[in-house]
Amino acid sequence: MTVKTESTQLFKEIMGSYPTGVTVITTVDSNNKPVGLTVNSFASVSLDPLLILWSIDKNAGSCDVFKKVDKFSVNILAGNQQEICWTFSSKSEQDRFSKQPWSLSKNKLPILENVFASLECKKVQFIEAGDHYILIGEVIDLNKNEQEPMLYFRRKVGSVPEQWE
Ligand SMILES: Cc1cc2nc3c(=O)[nH]c(=O)nc-3n(C[C@H](O)[C@H](O)[C@H](O)COP(=O)(O)O)c2cc1C
C-alpha cells in the first residue's frame, strides 16, 4: 500500500466516524425534472447573510445539473427517514422521487415531506476543490417541522438517542 492509499483509507475511517446529520439536496433540471442526492457534507457558514455549504463529487450523476442551476433546497432528514437516505444515494434507483411524498415550493424547489427542516437557497458560489465542488448557498426560505433530525455514524443512520446530555 502506498503512503497516499494508506492516508486515504485513514482519512475515510476518521471522517466516516465523525457523526453528522443527513440531508437530501434537491433542485429541478432544465426539463423541470426533480433531481436530488443524499449529502452529509452540509454545514452552516454565516449568519449575516445566512449562508450554508455542501460539496458534490465531480463524478456524481447530478453534478452538471447543480453546476447549472441557480438554486437548490437542503432537506434535513428526520430520524425515521432512513429509507430516503438510501434511496437518494443509490445509483440503481431510477426514480428517487416516486418513493416518498414531496411538493414544489413557491420557489419551485422540491421539498420532501416530513423532513426535520428545509433550507431553500440561492447558489452564490461554486468552487472547485480537489475531486469535489463546494456549493455555497444563501438561505432564501426556511421551515422546521416537529421531527427530530437523523444522525449518521459509521455508515449507519438513526435517531437522536432519548438519553442525551
Ligand atoms: C450518508 C451519505 C452521505 C453522502 N454525502 C455525499 C456528499 O456530501 N457529497 C456527494 O457528492 N455525495 C455524497 N453521498 C453519495 C451520494 O448520495 C451518491 O453518490 C448518489 O448516488 C449521487 O447521486 P447522483 O449520482 O444522482 O448525483 C453520500 C451518501 C451517503 C449515504
Polypeptide structure, described:
One of its GO terms (molecular function) is oxidoreductase activity. It comes from Neobacillus driksii. Belongs to the non-flavoprotein flavin reductase family. It is an enzyme of class 1 (oxidoreductase). Helix content is 16%, strand content 42%. It has helices at residues 3-16, 63-68, 82-87; strands at 23-28, 34-39, 43-46, 51-57, 71-76, 102-104, 110-112, 117-129, 132-144, 150-153, 156-159. The strands form 3 sheets. It has a 7-stranded antiparallel sheet. The protein has a two-stranded antiparallel ribbon with strand order 6-7. The chain has a two-stranded antiparallel sheet with strand order 10-11. Strand 8 and strand 9 (132-144) form a beta hairpin. The structure holds flavin mononucleotide.
Question: How are the elements arranged and paired?
Answer:
Elements: H1 3-16, E1 23-28, E2 34-39, E3 43-46, E4 51-57, H2 63-68, E5 71-76, H3 82-87, E6 102-104, E7 110-112, E8 117-129, E9 132-144, E10 150-153, E11 156-159
Antiparallel strand pairs: 1-2, 1-5, 3-4, 4-9, 5-8, 6-7, 8-9, 10-11
The structure holds flavin mononucleotide.
Protein name: Flavin reductase family protein
Organism: Neobacillus driksii
Keywords: Oxidoreductase
Query: Structural class given helices, strands, pairing?
Result: alpha+beta
Query: Given the C-alpha coordinates, what overall shape results?
Result: globular
What is the helix tally? 3
Strand order of the largest sheet: 2-1-5-8-9-4-3
Low-confidence segments? none
| Strand and helix order | HEEEEHEHEEEEEE
CATH class value: Mainly Beta
Number of domains: 1
| CATH homologous superfamily (4th level) name | Electron Transport, Fmn-binding Protein, Chain A
CATH fold-type name: Pnp Oxidase, Chain A
Radius of gyration: 16 Å
Which hetero ligands occur in this complex? flavin mononucleotide
What is the total tally of β strands?
A: 11
Measured as a percent range, the helix fraction is 10-25%
Main sheet: strands, sense, barrel: 7 strands, antiparallel
| Average of pLDDT | 96
